[in-house]
Design goal:
Oligomer: single chain
Shape: globular
Enzyme class: hydrolase
Organism: Haloplanus litoreus
Protein name: PIG-L deacetylase family protein
Number of domains: 1
InterPro entries: GlcNAc_PI_deacetylase-related, LmbE-like_dom_sf
GO molecular function: hydrolase activity
Radius of gyration: 16 Å
Order of helices and strands: EHHEHEHEHEEHHE
CATH superfamily: LmbE-like
Distance between the termini: 10 Å
Number of helices: 7
CATH class: Alpha Beta
CATH architecture: 3-Layer(aba) Sandwich
CATH topology: Rossmann fold
């Protein structure tokens, strides 16, 4: 049975750095896979509005490499979701959930140092509340954000692993569409680090390469 899948990211590249291999696997299995990027991902960080269009072009190319049906853009202001009215963030995600009617959603973990990611997680729960038709929600980790939570704060703790052994190259190639976001090793957003994380998560579950998730909501039995 095929399913409809929606990946939600705060910024352009979150959708591939987090669940990219899993999305490619869903698409390869015949599932209908979509992505939503909630912010424009540039204006707070870069003093060049042309980067907004550049990142949208990159996001579409990335989606194409992953086999996604489409990618949507919320265009909210980058790095300011924590001071954006909650209802505005909700509305962006609700609109896509109503249009796509996903069975499964992949969204950010709440155990993050990036406040945009946390805001997206919280609004995902609102948009996917009972009656939305969403059966399952999984939270993913985001390199250079999730693993930097320290002190006594709760850490990302996965309880589901997906074997992406056949999709690591696809994930890396798709990420390289965001050429302005690729960093040098040992930065977590370097190719070597992405491959190393996939190997590490795979080893935890007995795979050659894996992606890790935490189950947020399950309203139906997972088959």
């Amino acid at each position: 049975m095929t399913e409809t899948v929606l990946a939600i990211g705060a910024h352009p590249d979150d959708e591939v750095l987090g669940p990219g291999g899993t999305l490619a696997k869903h698409a390869d299995a015949g599932d209908d896979v979509h992505a939503l990027i909630v912010t424009e991902g540039t204006t707070t960080q870069y003093d060049d509005d042309s980067f907004v269009e550049q990142k949208q072009v990159a996001a579409r190319a990335c989606a194409n490499r992953l086999g996604l049906e489409d990618v949507r853009f919320g265009d909210l202001t980058d790095m300011k979701l924590d001071v954006t009215a909650h209802v505005e963030v909700n509305a962006v995600i609700e609109e896509t959930v109503e249009a796509v009617e996903p069975d499964i959603i992949y969204t950010h973990s709440p155990h993050e140092v990036n406040n945009d990611h946390v805001a997206v997680y919280e609004s995902t729960l609102v948009a996917a509340r009972p009656g939305s038709g969403v059966g399952r929600i999984y939270a993913y980790e985001t390199p250079s954000s999730t693993e930097w939570v320290g002190g006594d704060r709760r850490q990302f703790s996965p309880d589901r692993y997906v074997d992406i052994s056949e999709y690591v190259d696809t994930k890396v190639d798709a990420f390289h569409e965001y050429d302005m976001e690729v960093r040098e090793f040992p930065h977590p957003r370097s190719e070597q680090a992405i491959r190393a994380r996939a190997t590490s998560r795979g080893v935890e579950a007995g795979f050659e390469a894996g992606e890790a998730f935490s189950l947020v909501i399950a309203r139906e039995e997972e088959i």
